Amino acid sequence: MSIWIPIPNKFISVDQDTCIGCGNCVTICGGEVFALEQEKAVVAHIEQCLECGNCEIACPVDAIKFCVPKGGTGIVYECG
Ligand code: SF4
Ligand code: SF4
């Protein structure tokens, strides 16, 4: 079970000038956060982010910047 607590600040960004449209982020993201628009990646569904950080690692040109959202925001998992 999980819920999404809205985040006031953007915690994922894609540098449109650097992105080469390879699609790695779209493929690797388990939350289906990214989409390709006119051969550039965009953050389409930030509310589905699982906060794994894989997108930043997978980008071959360092176009993605990810930082873990502040505690109490973003995705919150409930166990039990
Ligand atoms: S941090 Fe993980 S879930 Fe969030 S956008 Fe990146 S790859 Fe997707
Ligand atoms: S992995 Fe990087 S270069 Fe490739 S589409 Fe995503 S942002 Fe663009």
What does this structure look like?
- With 80 residues, the protein is an alpha+beta fold.
- The chain has two helices and six strands.
- The protein has a single domain, classed as Alpha-Beta Plaits.
- Strand 3 and strand 4 form a beta hairpin.
- It has a two-stranded antiparallel ribbon with strand order 1-6. Strands 2-5 form a two-stranded antiparallel ribbon. A two-stranded antiparallel sheet has the order 3-4.
- The model has no long low-confidence stretch (mean pLDDT 93).
- Helices cover 12% and strands 28% of the residues.
- The chain is elongated.
- One iron/sulfur cluster binds next to helix 2.
Task: Please sum up the structure shown.
The protein has two helices and six strands; from the N terminus they run ββαββαββ. With 80 residues, the chain is α+β, with helices and mostly antiparallel strands. It starts with a strand and ends with a strand.
Topology:
Blueprint (H helix, E strand, L loop, with lengths): L1 E4 L6 E3 L9 H5 L5 E4 L2 E4 L10 H5 L5 E3 L7 E4 L3
Antiparallel strand pairs: 1-6, 2-5, 3-4
Bound molecules: iron/sulfur cluster (2 copies).
One iron/sulfur cluster binds next to helix 2.
CATH class: Alpha Beta
Bound ligand species? iron/sulfur cluster
| CATH architecture grouping | 2-Layer Sandwich
> What percentage of amino acids are in beta strands?
25-35%
Tell me the number of strands. Answer: 6
